[in-house]
Specification:
Two copies of one chain form a homodimer. By secondary structure, the first copy, chain A, is an alpha/beta fold. The first copy, chain A, has two domains: 2-232, 3-Layer(aba) Sandwich (Rossmann fold); 265-502, Rossmann fold, CATH 3.40.50. The first copy, chain A, has helices spanning 13-37, 53-63, 86-90, 111-115, 124-139, 153-165, 175-182, 184-198, 213-232, 266-289, 306-314, 332-335, 341-344, 366-369, 375-395, 408-420, 430-437, 439-453, 468-492; strands at residues 41-47, 69-72, 98-102, 143-150, 205-209, 294-300, 322-326, 353-357, 398-405, 460-464. In chain A, the strands form two sheets. In chain A, strands 2-3-1-4-5 form a five-stranded parallel sheet, sandwiched between helices. A five-stranded parallel sheet of chain A has the order 7-8-6-9-10, sandwiched between helices. In chain A, helix 3 links the parallel strand 2 and strand 3 (98-102). Chain A is elongated, with a radius of gyration of 26 Å. The two termini of chain A are 41 Å apart. The A-B interface holds A 25, 28-29, 32, 54-55, 57-58, 61-62, 65-67, 71, 73, 76-78, 102, 168-169, 171, 282, 285, 289, 310-311, 314-315, 317-320, 323-326, 328, 331-333, 357, 423, 426 and B 25, 28-29, 32, 54-55, 57-58, 61-62, 65-67, 71, 73, 76-78, 102, 168-169, 171, 282, 285, 289, 310-311, 314-315, 317-320, 323-326, 328, 331-333, 357, 423, 426.
Chain lengths: 506, 506
Amino acid sequence: MLEAVDMSVKMKKKEYKAAFDELAPKLGELQRTAKEKGVPVVLVVEGWEGSNKGSLVNQLLQALDPRGYLFIAPPGRGEERYPFLIPYWEITPPAGKMTILAGSWYREVLRRRLEKGEHAKDYSGVFRDICAFERHLADSGTVVLKFFCHMEKKEQKKRLEARAADPDLSWSVSERDWLENREYDSFLFCAEEMLSFTGTEYAPWTVVAAGSFEFAAWKILSTVERVLRERLSGEEWPATGGVLGGVEYEKSAALSTTEPDGDLSAKEYEKQLAALQSELKSLEIRVFRESLPVILLFEGVDAAGKGGAIRRITEALYPMNYTVHPVGAPNDLERSHHYMWRFWKDFPRFGHIAVFDRSWYGRVLVERVEGFCSPAEWHRAYREINETERHLTDFGTLLLKFWLQIDQEEQLRRFESRHDDPFRAWKLTDEDWRNREKWDDYQKAAGEMLVRTGTPYAPWTVVATNSKRLARIKILTTVTEGIHKALEGRADRVSGELRNTKRKKA
Amino acid sequence: MLEAVDMSVKMKKKEYKAAFDELAPKLGELQRTAKEKGVPVVLVVEGWEGSNKGSLVNQLLQALDPRGYLFIAPPGRGEERYPFLIPYWEITPPAGKMTILAGSWYREVLRRRLEKGEHAKDYSGVFRDICAFERHLADSGTVVLKFFCHMEKKEQKKRLEARAADPDLSWSVSERDWLENREYDSFLFCAEEMLSFTGTEYAPWTVVAAGSFEFAAWKILSTVERVLRERLSGEEWPATGGVLGGVEYEKSAALSTTEPDGDLSAKEYEKQLAALQSELKSLEIRVFRESLPVILLFEGVDAAGKGGAIRRITEALYPMNYTVHPVGAPNDLERSHHYMWRFWKDFPRFGHIAVFDRSWYGRVLVERVEGFCSPAEWHRAYREINETERHLTDFGTLLLKFWLQIDQEEQLRRFESRHDDPFRAWKLTDEDWRNREKWDDYQKAAGEMLVRTGTPYAPWTVVATNSKRLARIKILTTVTEGIHKALEGRADRVSGELRNTKRKKA
C-alpha cells in the first residue's frame, strides 16, 4: 500500500503560503459549524520518525481556534497498568470539540510492537479493539480523521543524520529513532498491516507523502477542510448505523430464578459471613500482589439490596485497594460525551478492585425504558458493551456482574419499611415509585440485557434477594470463587498475552 | 505536643461496635445535609507507619454513602514534575462532596522530608503554601478536617516486626517503614513542626492515639460527626473571612501607558518578527531540556489583540511543548468548585509552556464588575492569587503577565471592522458591546488588579496595542528576554531550592 505512494510530489513555499491563507479561515468557519452542530472531531497524525509530524500538526493548530481543540502529545506514564485504550477514551472530545493526537492508540501496533520485536505476532485482537473503539465514536456522531505521514528509508536516514549533526538537536535523536530506520522493513510491515486492518469506512486513513513539508502540510489541511465540509453539510447527523437485528425478548427465562427455600439463621449467617470476609481479605492481598484488576458490577431492581451487598464486600477490604463507583444520572460534561466515556476513566488498574453500584448497563435499562436514547442507540449498545468488556477481560481484568432480583410484593414491603424509618426514608424517592409503575418494562429490558450481554468472558450472576442473608452469602461466595479461579488461571498463561507480559507491581 | 498524648486509652470491641452503630446513621445524615447545603468537606488522615491509618479510614467509609465521597490514596507518579500542590487541588471536592485522603499534601513535610534527610532544613515556604491552600478552601466554605495518628516508638517497632513475621504480609514492610522507626526522633521533630505550623483556626489538627484500634476509630468517627454537626447547623455559611483592607484604586497610573510614536513598516516588522521567532525557537529547546515551566498570561481590553499576539508566539513553537488555554465562563462542574480549581490542573509541568488567553484574573475583572462574586470574595482574591503565583514561582515557574490596552476610540474602530468582515464577524458578540458600556468599571478593576498583583516574582507588563506591530514585537521581546533571564538565573541556584533539586527531563 505504501509503496504506491508518489513520493516525488513537491510544493513551493509561496504556493503553500497562499493555500494556507485560503484554507485557514475556512477551517475556522468549519470549526464553528462543528461547534454549533455539536459534532465532535478526532484527528490522528501518525507516521515515520523524522517525517515532521509535530510541525505538520502545528500548521493545523495555527489555522484553528484554540477554544475548539485539544492537542494531545502521547499520554504519560503509568499506562501499562491499564487496558491500553483507557488513556485515549479519556481524551475523546465532547460535542462540538476537536481532539488532535500526535501519538495515538496506534502506537500500540506501530512503535511498541516494533520495540517488542513482535511484528510477526498475531495482533488481530488489538486491531479488533481499535476498530470497535473507532466505530463506537463514529456511530455516536464523531468525525474520525487519520493521517499516516510516509517516508522512504533513504530520506528518513538523511533526516536523522542531519538532526544528529546539529549541535542544538542531536540530543533529540534517540536509539529508538535509529531502530526504526534500521528495521525499516519491519516497521513498514507493521504500518501496512495497521493501515489495511484499521482503514474502515467509518475511520479511513489518509497517507501523506511527507518528503515535502509544504506538500504534506497542504495535504493535511485541505483534507481536514474537505472532510469536515462534507460531514457538516447536510442533515444526516448523527449517524445511526450499527444497529443489531431486533430480536424481541419477552420476560426472560434468565430472570425466573426460583426463590431458594428457607433462610439462614442470624447466627449461621454471621458465621458464614465472617469466614467469607476473612477469605476475601487474604485474596485481596493476592489480587494486589499479583496485579489482578477486578470489576464487581451490581445492577438490579430498586430496593433489591445492592448497597448492603456491596458493604459486606468492602468492609473486608483495605481502602487503598478498592473504589466504589456509585452511578447516577450523568452530569453536563458527561452528557456531552459518548455514554461510555465516564466509565472508561473508572476501569481498575492492576491490582485494584472497582465496585460499580449501577453501571454502563443503564444504557439498556433506564435510558431504554425512559426513552433517554433512541432505539438505534440502545440496540447498538449491546455490541458496544460486549466489545468493551472483551477489551477489559483480554487485558486480564476479572469482571463479575450481578443482577439482584426481588418480586414486586417484596419491593413494596421494602419501600414501605424505608418510608417509616427516619434514617432510611431519604433512600426512597419519587423516582423509585415511578420506576415501580414501569415494572414490566424494566423486567423486559433486564431480561434482554442478561441474554445479550451474558458472555463467556463476562457472565452474569442472577441473585434472588428476597432473603438478604442468603443473597449476600451467595454474592460473597461468587466473588471469592471468581477471584480464586482468575488467580489460578493467570498462573497458567503468564507469558501468553500481549499486555499481561508487562505486569508490574502497581 | 505529641508527648502529651495519653497513649494508654483503650476501648472494648463491643463498646466500639455500639458506638459505631450509633454514629454511622448520624454521619450519613450529616453527609446528606452537607450535600443539601452544598458544603464541601476535606478529611486528611496522617500518622505513623503501622498506625492502621488505612483500616481506620475504612471504618469511616463504612459509615458513609459512597455517592458522597471520594477516597484518595496518594496520587500517582510524575508529580515531581509539577508544583507539589497541583495533584491535591485536582481532587478538592465540589460543593456538597467529601474528599478523604490517606497520604495528603503533608507527605511533603513528613515522609519526603525524612527520606531526603532534610528535617533540619527550613521548610517555612512549604508550610506557608500549605496554610494558604487550606485557607483558600476554608474561606470559600470547605470544611477541612485533619487527623494525625500517633504511635510510640516501641509500639511501632512491635507492629512492624509482627507484620514482617507474617508470611502473608512480610512483603508489605518496606525499607522506608523501618527508616521511620530507626529515625523516630527525626520524624517526631518533623511531625511536631508540621502540627504547630499548620494547626490553624480554619484547619485544625486532631491527634489520635492509635495504640488501640477501636479507640482511634471511635475518635475519628466521633470527631467527624461533631465537627460536621457544628459546622452544618446555623446559617453562617459560607465563611467570608480573609477580606483585605479596602483601599480604593481609581483609574490606575499603571494603565496610562503613553502611546508610542509612529509605527513599524510592514517590512521592518516582518524582519524583527522573524528574528524574534527564530530566537524563541532556540530558547524553546533550552526550556524543554533545562526543564523550565513557563506561563505566558494574557489579559486585556476586548479587541486589544490577545489572540494575534498569542499566535505570533505559538507559530514559532513545537506543539508538544506548548498548550494554549483559552479561558471562558466556567462550566457546571467548574462552578461547583473553588474558582481557582480549574486553573490548577493547567499549570505547566517541567519544560512546558502554558499560554493563558484570559485567566484566573477573571475573578477580579469580569466577576467583580458583573457581580458574579461578592465584594468579600474578590477582595480576598488578590491575596489568594499572589499566594498561588508565589507557589508556582517558588517551584521555578517563569510567570509573565501581559495587560493589553487600547483606548475607547480604537476599540470602536476594531469592533466595526470585525463586524464588516465575514470571516471575523463571529468574533464580535453582544457581550463585547455590553462590556464596552462598562468601560470605566473595567478600567478601574484592571487598574486595581495591576497594583495589587504586580509582584516582584510575577510582574505585569502593560502593552499599548494601538499599533499591533509594535505591540507584538514588544511582547515577543519581553518573552524572549524573560526566558533568557530565567534560564540564566537557574544556573546560579541549582541546588538552592526544595523541589528544584529534583529536576528531571520531562
